[in-house]
Amino acid sequence: MILYFTATGNSRWIAELLAEAMHDTAVSIVDCLKQGSIPAGLSTADRLGIVFPVHSWYAPRVLIDFLSQLRLPDCCYRYAVCTCGDDMGKGMNRLAEHFPLDAAWSVAMPNTYVPMFNLDDGALCRKKIENARHAVASIAEDVIARKRVWNVHEGSAAWLKTYVVNPLFVRFVIGTRSFHVDEGCISCGICGKSCPVGNIRLVDGHPVWGKQCIHCMACLHFCPRKVIQYGKATQKKGRYRLEDYLCRFTTPT
């Protein structure tokens, strides 16, 4: 089984590619959280994969909380794959302190955190996605062979990013006060449906953010009118949709 947590879709895509390559099953952690359930069969699983996005050089807190509920047999081969715009810092090592791992990989995917960074340009997005396809094929082979691999791109100042910057980010940056909606909202509710933690509801036809935000920016990217903003930082920046880049790999029918 492969459990994945996703917001903008990058980690879901990686999990589904892995599942296809290994004839495995990809299960959404978001769906599990909504249903208040733990997937059946984990108590006897001999292999479990975790796929998730990096948020400020660590895993999202909601993922850590979910993993803490899992009970796996000692013989279960555990591996994790994180998606990140560039590097992971020491995030995978920190995750392994709470959820022991036999193997781990990082896979570069298009950057989505536009409040602080620019979107990758189209050429770079396509290159990352194509490289990710090749990486997944190699990861699948290693997992099937139950290899103990630690192929994670930590980047520079890795310890500082994960153990100093991340806690500061969680405490002082994550919040919803800067979210607002420009003119043109059509009250479609897609922002609420796209939120992986159910933190958005419509009030008088406009989104209102609660207190459970994880700053994944799914609401911002999936808004069909591109009217959701985070302060002034996102007003002149584009929006990311994985499907826009996957279509180039699709064979016309």
UniProtKB/TrEMBL annotation:
**InterPro entries, from UniProt?**
4Fe4S_Fe-S-bd, 4Fe4S_Fe_S_CS, EFR1-like, Flavoprotein-like_sf
Name by which UniProt lists this protein: 4Fe-4S binding domain protein
Per its UniProt entry, which superkingdom is the organism in?
A: Bacteria
Q: Name one Pfam family in it.
A: Fer4_9
Alphabetical list of PROSITE patterns matching this protein: 4FE4S_FER_1 (PS00198), 4FE4S_FER_2 (PS51379)
Q: Does this UniProt record's set of keywords contain GTP-binding? A: no
User: Which GO MF term does the entry hold, naming one?
Assistant: metal ion binding
The UniProt record lists the 4Fe-4S ferredoxin-type domain at 177-205, 211-233
Q: Which residues form a coiled coil?
A: none
